[in-house]
Design a protein that fits this description.
The complex is a heterodimer. Chain A is mostly helical. Helices cover 71% and strands 2% of the residues of chain A. The termini of chain A are far apart. Chain B is globular, with a radius of gyration of 22 Å. Classes of the chains: A mainly alpha, B alpha/beta.
């Protein structure tokens, strides 16, 4: 009995830490509708700051807690700087575009932390006065864990009081429900948004600072926490602070007991719980309908067919690409294959997000299934390259049909997070099934057939599949099916009223996007010769998302520009020291100069130069 | 802002040309070598490594280079992603004209580069990846590996563990290939030496995301006599702190893989556990003349004590120099022929050679006990375990490799 109580208390202590990170994220999303990728960075900076400040006052109880609070306040200030200099300028950009900016901030903070605190892990002191364990029912429980168990609910109570007993809190709650109305009533939104962002950032900093007696402060902290924080926010319901608390307790306690039975479960447990919750409750435990959407944005311009001049330019570019292996070096052909793979991947994601209105945080799932499908077909069935290249997209289609069926029942960020859960579960299975997938040692020796093994020959294989895929998706966008998909995106109620089967339409759109991502995955697998679980991972999904958003979600050319810019810049800057800082600054630069993405920026540039008339798209 | 825009646009405009510049003609007296590692993903280990190989490179060139030519190393960050590592390798080989590749820390990147080396028929010296698969189940004729593998280091610990005569063992390892290999190797080696051993619990926390409190409780519940730990980095710090808070290590022996490496031991500071049996690197306590010369030069160059990565980086370049000298050319076939049984007669860790049968070097590791000396964590009572004694015989090892 004592053992289970001890395990429960351990779970509750973990829940408190998780809650502190997640509640800030939830508040920021609730008010500003920003999906804040940099939240983990605030958490990490909080921990580093607390480490440095607390070290100034060794063995002082006041010094320790004062240091923790000071760290949280400084992180709040950092949040204010980020909000005022960057985010405030792009609130009117398309939904989720702010996510790109926070991704840039994440990269910058990673390198600045490395530059300031160095590469080695830092182990902070134990909390003075709470540095040993007490026996509860005969089991040793660290005193600090007991303190954490109290701090979580105390912070929850504090937030509740602020939200229910102060005017500012009432405004925050009002903005969470309907920020247009709050603005219409004369409330200064800029001020409200800044305050919410600062509060959220400070809470993340507090969450990090409070971790220093429990874990070494390291440069991996930001990415290791961000996924779980999102999961907690979504399970609880976006914008619901008490929901976040319940979700944190649920996940932490489940994990504490589950590892007794299945020691390997930790890698997927939060995502499995999230998938189950979202399937049963489409808005999380305490979320309200519509809580997963950003502010209503202006309806998009309808897509137009290219003018004849634009078509000529496009054709010329495609021919130039086709002819490029003759003139450029071998390595340029290899780099161009990477660019084409990324472009098809981004275009397929854009098909889902831009045309279908279904945002995906887990599009890598289908890219990865395509890659693994081809790799396993070639490895286990001994299929030659061409048949294996057919198996991959079929496998991706099957996976997209299966997961898509569940996903299209949701909308907004909830849909996005369910796609992420699907990707993470697939990743976990691939990672764990060492006997079939090689685990993280991957599958090796997936090289092209002899006739395609030269860099030039494979370039043409990739060219046919990728450019063909992009052309096909473009055709579909202009087909009746594509019109239907866009109609549903703009108004699902009206689409349904005119007799369209909305869910079926979306399901098929989802499956098509997944299949084409699978084609990209197949080309990728044979160009690299090996596949590893990374291809299904969050980083791959996020790269795709950044390419689509950076390129401009409203234009068909957006993902093409976004992918090209992203791959080429990354290849270029990663040669430099502190390249993540530079890359982050470039992203922020693009975001601020072109809040409608690269495509929108190019469009405005052409107009400004008089090369394009109004009304042309 | 305008200037910023111009800069960005200028940079963007220049980008497509990057790939198209034909490889600059190499001056005849340099030998160009490509180096790839996870510099941004794992700076704690790869920074000392880079300092190590840079020092060796500078020393060699100061002494006149190799075969009358200067060595030049182009080094790139793989961003922790195997696909990027492959692209960079392609660029180094096809555009820069590197004659060989070395590097790698993460096992999956090591495996991806090894497979690339096989496909493109270039020589690849895997410096740091520990995976057994690299030289055994997925070994190939173009890939050699320097650092003592997971199996070797686990066997070193198993030898010490068998002397303790503890019956009930529990294991804790990060849930990925390295952790799994390390546990499997330790189990099989210890069972060989001590057939009555019992394995009472195993924990597999996710890498860098250990729920240390729950893991410690789960191990405690099994009441083992001894614990074998494979966690490292941030996971190790959390595990040690929660374990000591909850008395997990009271009256229990712990054997711990790699925990004696300064990269992992130093951050624990005064909380470093005492009496753990570990593999690692005792740093400046090693008093052989070769190591003292290396250590002094290293401290002079970088202003800090060498770490395990420094040794690996340094020995990598020593190996490459030896291979180039023996081959007398930079031709891949000549290099591969030179690598078979290549001896590195003098290195900071002593002599070692590359086994022809499985392409593994016999560079060893240091086995000792952790202790606090003046409040600082150190390895004490250590000895150098020569890698050759912890490898299967060359005949057996050859059977572990795929037929070519």
């Amino acid at each position: 009995m004592g053992f289970y109580v001890a395990q429960l208390l351990t779970g509750l202590a973990n829940a408190s830490s998780l809650f502190l990170i997640a509640c800030g994220l939830s508040i920021i999303f609730g008010v500003t509708r920003i999906v804040n990728f940099a939240h983990g960075s605030f958490y990490m900076v909080g921990a580093y700051l607390a480490y440095s400040i607390v070290a100034l006052f060794p063995d002082s109880i006041l010094g320790f807690w004062g240091g923790v609070i000071a760290a949280a306040l400084i992180v709040g200030l950092l949040g204010l700087i980020v909000e005022m200099t960057i985010l405030r300028r792009i609130y009117h950009a398309p939904e989720l575009f702010q996510l790109v900016a926070t991704f840039g901030v994440l990269l910058i903070i990673q390198d600045m932390t490395l530059a300031i605190w160095g590469a080695a892990d830092k182990l902070g002191p134990r909390a003075p006065g709470l540095d040993s364990a007490v026996r509860i029912m005969g089991e040793p429980i660290p005193e600090y864990d007991l303190a954490l168990i109290l701090i979580g609910p105390a912070v929850l109570a504090g937030i509740w009081l602020v939200f229910h007993r102060t005017r500012w809190g009432v405004l925050v709650r009002a903005a969470t429900q309907d920020r247009e109305m709050v603005g219409a009533l004369g409330v200064n939104q800029a001020w409200l948004f800044s305050a919410a962002f600062v509060l959220g950032a400070a809470l993340a900093g507090l969450g990090g600072a409070i971790q220093i007696p429990r874990e070494a402060v390291s440069l991996q902290m930001d990415l290791s926490v961000i996924g779980d924080a999102f999961v907690v926010v979504v399970i609880g319901g976006m914008g619901s602070v008490s929901g976040a608390f319940v979700a944190a307790v649920l996940i932490s306690v489940l994990n504490a007991f589950a590892i007794l039975v299945f020691p390997q479960i930790s890698i997927v447990l939060p995502f499995v719980v999230m998938a189950v919750v979202l399937i049963v409750r489409p808005y999380g435990l305490f979320g309200k309908e519509g809580s997963g959407h950003g502010a209503p944005t202006e309806p998009e311009q309808p897509l137009r067919l290219l003018s004849s001049r634009a078509t000529l330019v496009l054709m010329a570019l495609v021919f130039a690409l086709a002819a490029s292996p003759v003139v450029v070096s071998d390595f340029a052909s290899i780099l161009l294959v990477d660019v084409m793979v990324a472009t098809l991947f981004a275009v397929s994601l854009h098909f889902m997000m831009g045309l279908g209105g279904m945002v995906s945080f887990g599009h890598a799932a289908y890219f990865g299934v395509g890659a693994y499908g081809a790799a396993m077909a070639s490895n286990y069935l001994g299929l030659p390259m061409m048949p294996a290249m057919i198996v991959g997209p079929l496998a991706a289609a099957a996976a997209a049909l299966f997961f898509g069926w569940f996903c299209v029942r949701l909308s907004g960020v909830y849909l996005a997070m369910l796609t992420l859960a699907a990707a993470q579960i697939l990743w976990g299975v691939t990672f764990q099934s060492q006997a079939y997938t090689g685990g993280d040692d991957g599958i090796l020796g997936i090289w092209p057939a002899a006739w395609a093994s030269s860099d030039q020959a494979y370039f043409y294989v990739a060219f046919v599949l990728c450019i063909g895929g992009i052309w096909f998706l473009r055709r579909v966008a202009h087909s009746p099916f594509g019109y239907g998909l866009r109609g549903i995106r703009d108004s699902d109620v009206r689409a349904e009223a005119i007799g369209m089967d909305v869910k079926f339409h979306q399901w098929m759109g989802f499956a098509l996007a997944g299949t084409m991502a699978g084609v990209a995955g197949v080309v990728f697998a044979f160009s690299k010769g090996s596949v590893f679980p990374d291809v299904l991972g969050i980083a791959q999904s996020v790269d795709g998302l950044i390419m689509v958003l950076l390129g401009g979600i409203h234009a068909l050319a957006g993902p093409i520009l976004g992918a090209g810019v992203f791959v080429l810049i990354e290849d270029w800057v990663s040669r430099l020291d502190y390249w993540r800082f530079i890359f982050g600054m470039i992203i922020l630069g693009v975001v601020l100069l072109a809040p409608d993405g690269v495509a929108g920026g190019v469009d405005r540039l052409l107009r400004a130069l008089g090369l394009r008339r109004e009304g042309q798209a | 802002m305008n200037e910023m825009r111009r800069k960005i646009m200028g940079a963007l405009a220049a980008l497509p040309m990057l790939g198209m510049i034909p490889g600059a003609a190499q001056a005849q007296e340099t030998i160009l070598i490509g180096e790839i590692n996870s510099y941004t993903a794992l700076p704690a280990f790869t920074e000392p490594y880079k300092k190590g190989w840079t020092l060796a490179l500078e020393e060699i060139n100061a002494a006149g280079g190799v075969n009358g030519a200067m060595l030049e190393i182009i080094s790139r960050d793989d961003t922790g992603n195997p696909a990027n590592a492959i692209r960079i390798a392609e660029e180094m080989i096809s555009r820069d004209g590197a004659v060989m590749l070395f590097g790698g820390f993460l096992s999956n990147i090591g495996l991806a580069l090894a497979d690339f080396a096989k496909q493109k028929q270039v020589f690849f010296l895997a410096s740091e990846p520990l995976s057994d698969a690299l030289v055994w189940s997925k070994g190939n004729r173009y890939t050699y590996r320097l650092r003592p593998s997971t199996h070797m280091q686990a066997a070193m610990l198993a030898e010490q563990a068998a002397k303790l005569d503890k019956k009930k063992w529990a294991t804790v390892a990060p849930n990925y290939a390295y952790g799994k290999d390390a546990v499997a190797a330790f189990k099989s080696e210890l069972t060989k030496l001590q057939p009555d051993v019992e394995w009472v619990a195993e924990q597999w926390p996710p890498l860098f995301k250990i729920d240390a409190g729950s893991t410690v409780r789960a191990l405690e519940q099994a009441k083992p006599d001894a614990i074998y730990n494979v966690t490292f980095g941030g996971d190790l710090a959390k595990f040690v702190r929660q374990g000591s808070l909850r008395f997990l290590f009271e009256d229990r022996v712990v054997t711990s893989l790699l925990s004696g490496e300064p990269e992992y031991l130093d951050p624990l500071g005064a909380e470093a556990p005492e009496g753990w049996i570990v593999t690692g690197y005792p740093g400046m306590d090693i008093d052989t003349p070769e190591h003292e010369a290396f250590g002094t030069a290293y401290i002079e160059r970088w202003g800090e004590a060498p770490k395990t990565g420094s040794i690996v980086g340094y020995n990598s370049v020593l190996s490459i120099k030896a291979a180039l000298e023996k081959a007398g050319s930079t031709d891949t076939e000549a290099l591969l022929a030179a690598m078979e049984g290549l001896e590195v007669p003098s290195s900071p860790t002593g002599p070692f050679f590359y086994r022809a049968a499985d392409h593994q070097s016999t560079m060893g590791a240091y086995v000792g006990t952790t202790a606090l000396v003046d409040g600082k964590p150190r390895m004490v009572d250590w000895f150098y375990a020569d890698g050759a004694n912890y490898l299967p015989s060359e005949e057996e090892a050859a059977k572990l490799r795929p037929a070519e």
